[in-house]
Design goal:
The complex is a heterodimer of chains A (343) and B (717).
Chain A lengths: L5 E10 L3 H8 L5 H6 L3 E11 L4 E5 L6 H8 L7 E6 L2 E2 L5 H10 L1 E4 L11 H12 L3 H14 L15 H13 L5 E5 L7 H18 L2 E6 L2 H7 L2 E6 L2 E6 L1 H6 L4 H8 L3 H4 L2 H4 L12 E3 L4 H9 L5 E4 L5 E5 L1 H9 L7
Chain B lengths: L1 H5 L1 H19 L22 E5 L2 E5 L14 H15 L3 E6 L4 E6 H25 L3 H6 L2 H6 L10 H16 L1 H16 L3 H31 L1 H16 L2 H12 L3 H25 L3 H9 L4 H12 L1 H21 L8 H10 L3 H27 L10 H4 L1 H23 L19 H40 L2 H33 L3 H30 L2 H16 L6 H8 L3 H25 L3 H9 L4 H34 L8 H9 L4 H34 L3
Antiparallel strand pairs in B: 1-2, 3-4
């Protein structure tokens, strides 16, 4: 496997006057409560993980869990108090100001919850802004920005001001701006949280479409567990600055690591999240009949097909080879069983 | 007892008032007490007591300490004065190269710095002035007088008024469209035809130097304060005092440092105009959302790009208000600095007022106001203007304004040339209409004033007499009757009840400074005039504001009226009142009232507007009548903002009271005016100014503290 694009090694972020000294004295054993008594607030507590190329890591947590702080450490909008962060092998915390600016101009893009558009610039100028900062000629930057406008479907509105747009449209501008320099790494800080539910769903679909096309390395922050399940390759669940569990959506739903994570997974409609491959059994010698299901289907889509059979079905991969089996009891068990309180 | 528990604050206040009145009655007026002569004067009199402090002898009339505190700070003005002179004449003598005599010369450092500064300012002003009016100085600055003598052709010719008028109109069109262009053309033509061209251009050249310099310094210092807490902490007290310091008072020390003339006026204007610019820049930069800053950083902005392309443009709204303030102050100072020899409309205005030629004063005042409004609107339009990006226009389209201006220049020069042939023996009206050859409406206005006087004399006189005898005199006597100790107790008590110990200490310090200065009585008179003005202004402002708020159109109309009135230089307000009431306290007070009503009205409307719409609807749905809604919902919620209006009203009133000294009042302002013509007046002027500033700051502190608490209580901001 090639080198991870983002690599964090026990990253700490502690707010307060003597944060660095206290972290040293704590010797890698940071307890939020004792720190708070001494006037320090722990934002991120010993975060270690990797994100590989083209992967989407969603960081999920409630407000105050440190997820935005973690993102700001990785984009170095704030400096981490301890630990190491590598971006494509470069030690982020050792970059000087010029190198950091270079990195941001060429490798990183970021989308913000409150859109953070410049109020005095039009849609087109906002999108062209990072390009012009880089020193690209006005005409070229405007042309490039126009392509971006088309990409996010805002053509015809390029000369509007942010205040003249709806929330969803403003966030499209934010997305287009963050993509204008064609970054490899894309940070999204609760990009859809300020939007109405219907618009949010539309934007999520749009986002998936874009990602399919662009294949960026993504860190996506959200407080919405459903959103995380829908978008993520892997999910990191944070609480009080600590990453409680980092795993694929299926594994988190099936095997929550802590009580805290379990609470989130309880209400999740599993048939909508899990794929056949997540729950299938090994190939058995039983008669599996002629009906086959693909391993990449969501359970919901093939549930009727499976449940109307009384015997085990064969599961196939993309090339129609049989790779496993599934039987109706397993489906029923997965979807309805195993919940703590079945009211 | 239950009442006491229910309203503890009310009883505390009642107690304070009771103590105050008890003190007032307990302390008798000393038999020897007489206003004015009651305190330190610089005449020697065997009845005076004296003390020596820091080598300065201070003489004063001693009274019972409870009645009037002894002027222990009496040495301060003398000391300031001596220090200034020492700085200017004896401190750090150094060798400096003298260009004219071609040799080294010994000069004190400060003198050299101020002389160089003034030379630079003079050069800037002369440069613009000579482009507009013609002259020699700029060329001399680059060469020498000898060279000029050898080359008599070398003189800047100045622009014909037609070119300036059309040019400003084109600029206005480019910035703000047709309406502004027409306004620019009309006002410039008016100025020319009515023979005010020369003084107007002199004033304009002064402002074109002072305003941009103030803007740049204000913005720069604002940014510095935003970036560094230490700079902010160092600047803050100065800013605070400058906000309430009357502009008059700055004139006097500057006179010592920079001498007399336009250059000194520019420097003083900067001293006055920069603080509000700093404050508003800081306010604007603070209000930029953190995510916008992060977005800028993530776009790869360097620090400089972040400031110039993200922070400042995003804070544009507040910075614009700052620009507005700068322009307002500049025009205000354009008049006031005529006292120290600045040329232009202000000088003419003062001269006319001095001669009681109301008509002439009115014309000069009108011209200042026209230019003020024009520059104000143009700067607003400039800041709001968007940059066009698309380069797909051809050369002619892109440069049509410049080309048009080129044509205008040629046409203007040709016109002026024909003019010089046509008006053979006289004045070339197509080049410049001389001061006394324009159309003048002065006679008309003077006759009008006479007519008003003849017709309404009885009524005006009756009103005047009633106001002075039945209202003002008793009120003044009442203020002067307060023993110093009683006043101190009242003010400090109020500070304690409103803001606790901290507030009480601040207020106590400020009051003590005034009480220990030699001018406590004068300060009382200033306060009485300001109080009267503020009371009437607030009554009018709150009423008018509330009434206007009932209708959307009248709200906008009123805010526009306030905008325009605010653009007038403060001196202009004296013209119409002198027209009606002549040289009396009434005139000053009415000017104060008109001037101070602007912020009162504006803040009332804005306060009422800031009441959340949701609450408005909620109240309506609980079935309140219009009056109930106003008194139960809107007033309580808008009150904190309206109190900030009161704060502004007080500052405005104080400024006008001080300016009123020009008409003749017996308060601090009169002494400031006196100090202007006194060779040793610098210290006195500055100390007096600080006294006035402190009166403002006492109220400022009390009101702001109260508003802060109230807002917290109501959960606003």
């Amino acid at each position: 496997m090639s080198e991870p694009v983002i690599k964090c090694q026990s990253v700490y972020k502690i707010f307060g006057a003597n944060a660095e000294r206290m972290l040293k004295e704590a010797n890698g054993n940071v307890d939020a409560k004792t720190f708070q008594e001494k006037g320090c607030i722990v934002g991120v507590n010993n975060a270690s993980f990797e994100v590989s190329k083209g992967e989407m890591l969603v960081v999920m947590g409630l407000s105050g869990s440190g997820k935005s702080t973690l993102l700001r450490c990785i984009s170095r909008l704030t400096d981490a108090t301890g630990g190491k962060i590598f971006i494509e092998g470069q030690d982020l915390l050792n970059l000087n100001n010029k190198e950091l600016i270079d990195l941001r101009r060429n490798k990183m893009g970021m989308v913000f919850q409150s859109f953070a558009l410049l109020p005095h610039k039009t849609v087109l100028e906002n999108i062209a802004f990072p390009l012009q900062i880089k020193g690209i000629k006005t005409e070229d930057s405007i042309n490039k920005a126009m392509d971006m406008v088309k990409l996010v479907g805002l053509d015809g509105r390029e000369n509007y001001f942010p205040r003249e747009l709806s929330g969803g449209q403003q966030q499209r501008v934010g997305i287009a701006r963050s993509l204008a320099v064609e970054p490899d790494i894309w940070f999204l800080d609760e990009p859809f949280s300020a939007l109405d539910p219907l618009i949010r769903k539309e934007m999520q679909d749009e986002f998936l479409r874009l990602q399919e096309k662009l294949q960026k390395t993504i860190m996506f922050i959200t407080h919405d567990f459903d959103e995380a399940l829908k978008l993520a390759d892997r999910i990191a669940i944070m609480k009080d600055g600590i990453i409680e569990q980092l795993d694929t959506p299926a594994n988190i739903v099936l095997n929550p690591a802590t009580e805290y994570v379990r609470k989130f997974t309880e209400e999740v409609p599993r048939e909508k999240v899990l794929l056949i491959k997540d729950v299938m059994d090994e190939i058995t010698s039983d008669d599996m009949g002629n009906i086959k299901v693909s391993k990449d289907e969501i359970i919901e889509n093939v549930a009727e097909k499976i449940l109307t059979q009384e015997k085990t079905l064969a599961v196939t991969d993309g090339k129609n080879n049989i790779v496993g089996s599934i039987n109706p009891a397993k489906i029923i068990n997965t979807v309805f069983g195993g919940r703590k309180n079945n009211h | 007892m239950e009442l006491l528990k229910k309203y503890p604050k009310l009883f505390q206040w009642l107690f304070l008032l009771a103590v105050f009145f008890a003190l007032c009655f307990a302390i008798d007026v000393p038999e020897t007490y007489k206003f004015i002569r009651g305190q330190a004067e610089f005449v020697k009199d065997p009845n005076q007591s004296a003390f020596v402090f820091l080598g300065k002898e201070v003489r004063y009339y001693a009274f019972d300490v409870f009645w009037r505190l002894p002027p222990l700070l009496g040495w301060l003005p003398i000391w300031i004065n001596d220090s200034l002179f020492f700085l200017m004449n004896d401190w750090m003598p150094m060798e400096f190269w003298n260009e004219d005599t071609q040799e080294y010369k010994t000069r004190p450092l400060v003198l050299q710095i101020t002389r160089n500064l003034t030379a630079f300012m003079t050069f800037l002003i002369e440069l613009i002035r000579e482009i507009l009016l013609g002259g020699l100085e700029t060329i001399v600055a680059f060469t020498s007088w000898d060279w000029i003598d050898a080359n008599p052709w070398a003189e800047l010719p100045g622009l014909p008024w037609t070119i300036v008028a059309a040019g400003s109109s084109i600029l206005a069109y480019k910035l703000g469209g047709k309406g502004l262009a027409i306004y620019a053309l009309l006002s410039m033509t008016y100025i020319s035809i009515f023979g005010q061209w020369k003084p107007s251009m002199q004033t304009l050249s002064f402002i074109l130097v002072a305003a941009p310099l103030s803007f740049i310094f204000g913005l720069g210092l604002g940014v510095a304060a935003y970036k560094s807490k230490r700079v902010e902490k160092a600047l803050y007290p100065i800013l605070l005092v400058m906000q309430t310091m009357p502009q008059y008072a700055v004139l006097v020390p500057a006179l010592v440092l920079f001498g007399v003339g336009d250059h000194a006026a520019v420097i003083i204007t900067m001293i006055v105009a920069v603080p509000p610019m700093i404050l508003l820049t800081l306010l604007g930069l603070r209000a930029v959302p953190p995510e916008v800053i992060e977005a800028g950083r993530m776009s790869g902005c360097s620090n400089w790009q972040l400031m110039s392309k993200v922070l400042i443009p995003t804070a544009r709204r507040d910075i614009l208000i700052g620009v507005n303030q700068v322009i307002m102050v500049c025009f205000s100072m354009a008049v006031i600095s005529a006292f120290i020899g600045a040329k232009g409309l202000g000088f003419n205005l003062l001269l006319a007022l001095n001669q009681l030629n109301i008509g002439l004063a009115l014309e000069a005042g009108l011209c200042i106001s026209l230019i003020a409004i024009l520059l104000d609107k143009m700067s607003l339009a400039w800041a709001n203007k968007q940059v066009d990006y698309f380069g797909n226009l051809n050369f002619f389209q892109r440069n049509k304004n410049s080309l048009f201006f080129g044509v205008i220049v040629i046409v203007g020069i040709l016109l002026a040339y024909f003019g010089s042939i046509y008006f053979k023996d006289g004045y070339n009206y197509l080049f410049e209409v001389p001061h006394n050859k324009g159309i003048s409406t002065a006679d008309f206005w003077n006759k009008g004033v006479d007519w008003i006087f003849d017709t309404f004399f009885v009524y005006i006189k009756a009103f005047n007499t009633w106001l002075i005898v039945d209202v003002l005199q008793p009120m003044r006597a009442l203020y002067l009757r307060m023993p110093a100790v009683a006043t101190l107790v009242l003010v400090v008590g109020a500070g304690y009840l409103i803001g606790g110990v901290r507030s009480a200490l601040v207020v106590c310090g400020l009051t003590l400074f005034i009480a220990l200065s030699p001018w406590w009585d004068r300060a009382l008179v200033t306060t009485y005039m300001a109080t009267f003005g503020v009371l009437v202004s607030c009554t009018i402002g709150f009423t008018v504001g509330t009434l206007c708020f009932q209708n959307k159109h009248s709200t906008n109309f009123m805010l526009n009226v306030c905008d325009i009135f605010q653009t007038f230089p403060s001196f202009v307000y004296l013209i119409p009142v002198m027209m009606l009431f002549g040289i009396t306290d009434t005139s000053v007070l009415i000017a104060v009232i008109v001037y101070a009503t602007i912020p009162a009205t504006r803040y009332t409307i804005e306060g009422l507007r800031s009441v959340p719409a949701g609450l408005h609807d909620a109240a309506t749905m609980s079935g309140v009548t219009k009056f109930q809604r106003l008194f139960k919902i809107e007033f309580p919620l808008a009150f904190p903002h309206m109190m900030l209006g009161l704060n502004q009203t007080i500052v405005f009133a104080l400024f006008m009271v001080i300016i009123g000294a020009f008409i003749g009042t017996e308060d601090l302002g009169q002494y400031i005016l006196k100090a202007l013509s006194d060779k040793k007046g610098a210290g006195i002027g500055l100390t007096l100014g600080i006294c006035v500033a402190f009166i403002g700051l006492i109220f400022d502190n009390l009101i702001r503290t109260w508003v802060g608490q109230r807002k917290k209580h109501l959960g606003i901001d």
